[in-house]
Amino acid sequence: MASNSIKNKSWMSVKEVGLIHFFVVLCVIISLAVGCAQKGESGAAASQVRATDARGVEIVLPRHAERVVVLFEPFVDEMYMLGAGDKLVGIPQQVYQNSSSYYYLSQLDPRIAKKSIATPTFGGRSTHVEKVISLQADLAIVYEYDIETIAQLEGLDIPVFVVSSKDKAHIYDELINVGKLIGKKERAEDIVNYVNNAIEKIGSEVETVKKSVYYGWSKGRVFSTSGRGSLVDLAIQVAGAVNACPLEMEAPNVSAESIYKWNPDMIVLWNSDVEDVYRLAELAALPAVVNKQVFAMEPTFFFDPHTVKFLLFAKQLRHWGYQDYTTDQDFKDALQEIVDFLYEKKMSIE
C-alpha cells in the first residue's frame, strides 16, 4: 500500500510538471507572437510618411507615393521641379491646352509631348472621379476650392493633399510637405532655401523711391487686378515695388477712373498682350500708357506666381522698373541660371 501511494504521488508530480511545462511553452509562444506583431506594427509605423496640407489635415501614407494624380496645374510644374515628374499618372487637361506650359513641359517629359499622361478632367476644374480611381493613385493633389472633388476622392479612400498656393508661406510649406510624401523632401528644402536666398539678395538692393505697379489679369482682363495680400502683390513687393491697387482683395474688378486715380508707374500683364491695354480708349491718356510703360511677362510658363517662380516674376518686374542689369542679355543669363537650378536641366527661357 505504501509503495502504491508513493507511485501515485510520483505520477501526480510528473503530471503537474507536464502541465507547468505546457503553460510555460504556451506563454513563450504567446510572447513571441505578441513581440512579432508589435515589431511588425513598429516596422509599419516606421515606414509611414506623414505631411500636413493647406487645411491642416495630416495625410498618412504607408510608404512614399509612387503614383500621383495632380489636379492643380501649377503643381504639375512643381512636380518636375522636385524631380518627380515620373510619378505623375494623371494631370489637368489644361496642361495640354496651355501652349506655353505644354511646350516647355514637353522638353522635360516625352509623355507630355505625346500627351500620353491621362487627364481625368473635363475642362476647368471638373474632375472625372471614376478615371482617377482607374489610375490607382497613391496620392491626389487637389486645389482647395475643388471641394466636391476632395470629398469624393476621400470618400473613396484615395489620399488627398490639398494645396492653396495663397502666399509665400503656403507655397513653401506645400512644396516641402508634398516632398515628404513622395520622397523628395531634401530637394524641396533645397528649392525653398535657394528661392529665399535670392529674395534676400533682391531685398538688400533698397530703392529710395518705390515704383507703383498695376497688374492686369490674364486673357486681356485689364480691369481685373490683384489686391494687397495676393500672390502678385507678393511678387511686386519682392521686386522692391508697390502694388498700385490699395484694396485688400484677391481679385477685385476696378474702373478706369480708379486706375487713373492710382496712376501707376507701370502696368504689368501675365498671359495677356500689351495691345490689350494700348487698344483701350479709356486708358489712352494714362501716363503709364502714354510713356509706353506696359509690359507682358513672356513666356508665361516661367513667370507663374502660383509657384516658387514668383521669384522670376519679381526679377523680371524689377529689371523693367529699375534696370538692375546692364543689358537685357545679362538679365536673361541671370534668369537662365535660376531656371537651370529649378529644373536641374538646361531649358532655354527664349
Notes on the protein architecture:
This is ABC transporter substrate-binding protein. It comes from Sphingobacterium populi. InterPro entries: ABC_Transporter_SBP, ABC_transptr_periplasmic_BD. This protein is 50% helix and 13% strand. It is of the alpha/beta class. Helix 8 runs antiparallel to helix 9. It has a four-stranded parallel sheet with strand order 4-3-7-8, with helices on both faces. The protein is built from 15 helices and twelve strands. It has helices spanning 2-47, 73-81, 94-97, 99-108, 110-113, 129-134, 147-155, 168-182, 185-203, 231-238, 256-262, 275-278, 287-290, 310-322, 328-343, and strands at 49-52, 58-61, 68-70, 88-90, 121-123, 126-127, 139-143, 160-163, 212-216, 242-243, 266-270, 294-297. The chain has two domains: 50-199, 3-Layer(aba) Sandwich (Rossmann fold); 206-343, Nitrogenase molybdenum iron protein domain (Rossmann fold, 3-Layer(aba) Sandwich). The protein is globular. A hairpin with a 2-residue loop joins strand 5 (121-123) and strand 6 (126-127).
